[in-house]
Amino acid sequence: MSLSKLMGERSDEGQAKRERRKEARPGELLDAALDLFVEKGFAATRAEEVAARAGVSKGTLFLYFPSKEELFKAVVRENISGRFAEWNAEFEAFEGTTADMLRYCMRVWWERIGATRASGITKLIISEARNFPDIAAFYQQEVIRPGTELVRRILQRGVDSGEFRALDMEYATFSVTAPMIFLIMMKHSLGACAPQDYPLDPERYVTSQVETLLRGLCVRPEDQPA
Amino acid sequence: MSLSKLMGERSDEGQAKRERRKEARPGELLDAALDLFVEKGFAATRAEEVAARAGVSKGTLFLYFPSKEELFKAVVRENISGRFAEWNAEFEAFEGTTADMLRYCMRVWWERIGATRASGITKLIISEARNFPDIAAFYQQEVIRPGTELVRRILQRGVDSGEFRALDMEYATFSVTAPMIFLIMMKHSLGACAPQDYPLDPERYVTSQVETLLRGLCVRPEDQPA
Amino acid sequence: MSLSKLMGERSDEGQAKRERRKEARPGELLDAALDLFVEKGFAATRAEEVAARAGVSKGTLFLYFPSKEELFKAVVRENISGRFAEWNAEFEAFEGTTADMLRYCMRVWWERIGATRASGITKLIISEARNFPDIAAFYQQEVIRPGTELVRRILQRGVDSGEFRALDMEYATFSVTAPMIFLIMMKHSLGACAPQDYPLDPERYVTSQVETLLRGLCVRPEDQPA
Amino acid sequence: MSLSKLMGERSDEGQAKRERRKEARPGELLDAALDLFVEKGFAATRAEEVAARAGVSKGTLFLYFPSKEELFKAVVRENISGRFAEWNAEFEAFEGTTADMLRYCMRVWWERIGATRASGITKLIISEARNFPDIAAFYQQEVIRPGTELVRRILQRGVDSGEFRALDMEYATFSVTAPMIFLIMMKHSLGACAPQDYPLDPERYVTSQVETLLRGLCVRPEDQPA
DNA sequence: TATGAATGAGCATTCATTCAT
DNA sequence: AATGAATGAATGCTCATTCAT
């Protein structure tokens, strides 16, 4: 056993823990910030509160993020998944009816976005867009556009295969995105205030929405959900 | 010489200009406040800015509203006129298919709410709900609940008449409200930032949504929209 | 009966009343201001409150007094009695022992100053002196100095007549004025807050003070009060 | 090398300068606030001025005191150290005539209260009592009542020992307290404005008052001061 | 003269940000 | 790197004062 181990094992461990913590700091701060920004909005969230929730001092926050606004942007950047490539591939490879594809799409969306903290970002951006136009534009490019594109491709697949009727494609995508966005907004605003007034079971909500939607999209009665 | 003048109402006229102003002030302030609150949120809106936009000084604002928070509440109250009684009556008296009723409902909603400044209130409340739980609860009681009730009655009429299929009524209402709320949120957030990315024609949007929805609700193919 | 009387009697009466009121305005305002300044101090008294208590509008106050500070000064001026000449004469003419003279002096002081609203001025000036040095100086010249002079003359009379012992005249006057000022300050501050803690009977207070004082001043035991 | 250094207390020293400052801050602020409140009254004292006099910025004041009113209350509390227990003991143990006791009492009062900044508190409370009824009540309980009690015990001792004549005890205490309060009020109001008009030598004032008072209280001529 | 709506300078308080330790 | 005391610009709100009617 080495001398250094004899003398320093504990401090090495201490060091290790601290370093692990040190590297985790920005993440913990972003985590805390996301929660608070979603809950109270950008302006009403105090930097000290973010730091406190992350278990560090006010000063430390500014050690990692030069300003509250940069913290906000980092929160958004951190939580905007650029996973559309992966998802696109997933859907390219999908074998089955487009109706099933859409069902899968919305269920998966709920699991990966709606049910997770990522949904807070959507609420955040929609609420703060006017104060952060560049963030809004960024979100538009990075999330809205590819997401809409993905949805459009699914719908187009349905139309091409003769499953879906002819659609005003520009607006049809909203039939898919609107219920998802709506669910997120409710979850993070009115639904969070008065849960007793919003006993929303998201699974049932998604099912209800997608089945009605499929009826609305499918061309032949026999393809429509019961 | 007018009768009023003969009767000594000259002093009434003397005060007229200023009094008309005085009576107009609260409305002008609420107008300005609505715009700014919708645009920037409650916290980021400065009282002086509201006053300036209403064409008065900072002090005047506080002459009419004891605090910024009371101003906010007044803005909300002012714009939530309980027009549901009138609408309910309108829909009770409606003669025609329930499909037409739903079409009429959503078109009218767009004209009376979505297209007007009242829509800003919805954006406002959804964005600020967590900071104003009492406002949120108030809105829930006064707007959401009666609105949902109205929608439910329409859907029930369709089901009862055999036009619509059996519905999970609790969640089916969201198929109507979600697209409306979504449109409002977009109009006041991302849509307001990057209009070029949201060349939304609301009429076309509403038509697209309602027709797909009706296909999803109607029982017999021949009732469904083409 | 004159035409004007036939046509205008009522308005003449109205006019009269209004004019009487008009002339009374400044006095009513000074009255109200005195009460409030004494009660809450200069800074904490709002101009509007003074006007309201006088039954006029805020604007009217500034019609009669160009500023709150001038109002303050007017209040002081109005209530500082220049009655020392009269009082001096009264005491010049006094026939009797100096002990009785001092008794009379303090009793009369209580009746004419201490028990009246004039006492508020003393409280006011002592409390606000540092903020109104010129007022303080004015009060010093117009009230304190002549008052002290009057007291000094009484004491001197006693010394001269052999009733009182030799006195350090500069400081002896305080033996008369201190208890009077003290009573006023208590009446208008702590005594006004917690009357149950200050069940002061002023007559008994004055008697107690003057009799002890006379014992302290008189030269021969047989002259001293029992 | 010092023991503390050997034991690793360097980091304590490292923080020392700043911590010493931090601990001193409240005291420095209370000091500055006492002066200003006494000088200008509560309302006319600006928070920034207090901070400036304490050598810190506006924000720092509110780091230590949540509001101006709390600062005021802290100033009062800080300066009302309940020294009455100590004084009571001192007077219990006093051996000598009650006349000497009273002389000692008033001299000591001047040295420990009248001549110190603590006297400002008395002025402050008497001036602001109506605006801070709770402070006034607190002062009444904590200072006035025990102080009066102490005086009453002294007087009673004199009466019991046959030195003093029978007294209307309720009011006799004022013969002791009135001159003291009067001196304080003068020192902090008119006396502070026009020192040339108040060339008060407090020692001589106290002597004059106490000797006249003792003459007024003592029963036998031979006990009375010359 | 009297009114009271309007003003805006002034002040208490907050909070993002800095920096000595 | 981490802290938290200190800062001061920013902002809600008050109130003496003005002025159109």
From TrEMBL, chains A, B, C, D:
Annotated protein name in UniProt: TetR/AcrR family transcriptional regulator
DNA-binding region location: 46-65
SUPFAM superfamilies in UniProt: Homeodomain-like, Tetracyclin repressor-like, C-terminal domain
Cited PANTHER family: HTH-TYPE TRANSCRIPTIONAL REGULATOR RUTR, HTH-TYPE TRANSCRIPTIONAL REGULATOR UIDR
Annotated source species: Caenimonas sedimenti
Short name of any one Pfam family annotated for the protein: TetR_C_11
Renumbered residue ranges of the record's region Disordered: 1-24
InterPro entries xref list: Homeodomain-like_sf, HTH-type_TetR-like_transc_reg, HTH_TetR, Tet_transcr_reg_TetR-rel_C_sf, TetR_C
HTH tetR-type domain residues: 23-83
Ranges of biased composition (kind: Basic and acidic residues): 7-24
Entry keywords, A to Z: DNA-binding, Transcription, Transcription regulation
